[in-house]
Amino acid sequence: MIDLDYLAFLENILTENRKSNFLKVLENRTKHFTVAVEDVFQMHNTSAVMRSCEVFGIQELNVIEQRFGKRIDKEIALGAQKWVDINRFDSVSGCLSDLKSKGYQIIATTPHEKDCMLEDFDITKPSALFFGTEKEGLSKEIMDNADGFLKIPMVGFTESLNISVSAAIIIQSLTNRLRRSDINWKLSDEEILVKRLLWAKNSIKDIKRIEERYYQDNPRN
Predict the structure, then answer these.
(1) Segment 6-9 long-range contacts (CB within 8 Å, at least 24 positions apart)
(2) Which residues make up the binding site for S-adenosyl-L-methionine (predicted)?
């Protein structure tokens, strides 16, 4: 349960403009779609995907680091790591199991399958969109466990796009269609409260000292 008094205390420190922006952004956030990237060696690609998630309203990014343990490139993410939830996994199986337990269908993005073009993709089902590297693509484990395949229509000689580019195109297209639909895609009231609290904490300098002072003055029962 969210401590509403504590939330009110923290938000009282913020400017009215920032609080208003939080509510406006949260109105367009969704967990109906989530994004997963697999073993992306170049940090800036994962960071760029995170930035696309933030810009287009995807709340969660799943990062599989089975082979390459990498930190998020803050310069590329440009602060997106403060507003997007990052779920880290050290194995493909762990990520697949977690997402399936949450009710997501596994969608592999690849130019080599003929299952579904981007504009024809069924947006009604909660979906986890998996992206691999430009050179190697997604692993056999993900391809074998995929419930469907999705690709971007291309008419040139080049067969693939950089992961950050393909992710941006797909996320923008699907979230734009989602917001025009009658699907219940928004965060729940409880999820919005959780994000308001976290974002308020991320916005306040010296939050640990402020938090300690609050609970000293307002001891928990």
Answers:
(1) 6/197, 6/214, 6/218, 7/193, 7/196, 7/197, 7/200, 9/214
(2) 109, 152, 161
| pTM: predicted TM-score of the whole model, two decimal places | 0.89
d(CA 165, CA 40): 14
As annotated, the binding site for S-adenosyl-L-methionine includes 109, 152, 161
Q: Which residues are annotated as a binding site?
A: 109, 152, 161
- Helical spans, DSSP H, in 57-114: 74-77, 92-101
Question: What are the C-alpha distances in Å from 199 to residues 80, 85, 186?
Answer: 11, 11, 18
Average pLDDT over residues 24-40: 93
Q: Which helix (H) or strand (E) holds 176?
A: helix 163-179
